[in-house]
Specification:
Shape: elongated
Number of strands: 7
Helix content: under 10%
Order of helices and strands: EEEEEEEH
Largest sheet: 5 strands, antiparallel
Distance between the termini: 39 Å
Structural class: mainly beta
Amino acid sequence: MPNLTLTFSSPLNASIQIGDIAYYTLAPSTVGGFQTSTQAEIVEIGAVNSINNNTNTIICTTTLLNNGQPTTSSYIFFSKNNKVNLSTVLGYYGELKFKNDSTAKSELFSVGSDMFISSK
């Protein structure tokens, strides 16, 4: 697949990382004081495979043809890869003690927890 290099005039978002998926939409217009796209078409550019913060560029693997690529007025954004970035609390433990000092009847509706084996 071909690569597409996107160069920005501003610094890149600090949370972008290799493996994120880049998208674009047509140039936004101002409506009611907010910038919005008049057409809700969101186009996937492809996976980010290189980031250069010094030159404010990202390189994406893409299948877009020349006439389907973003222009200088397109709004570019990205989403995180859910397979990689799903997380829970790591390296912590919790200890709970439930005590009812009341003499009246009471019920506990629900208690939940999440755990997994992180190493063997």
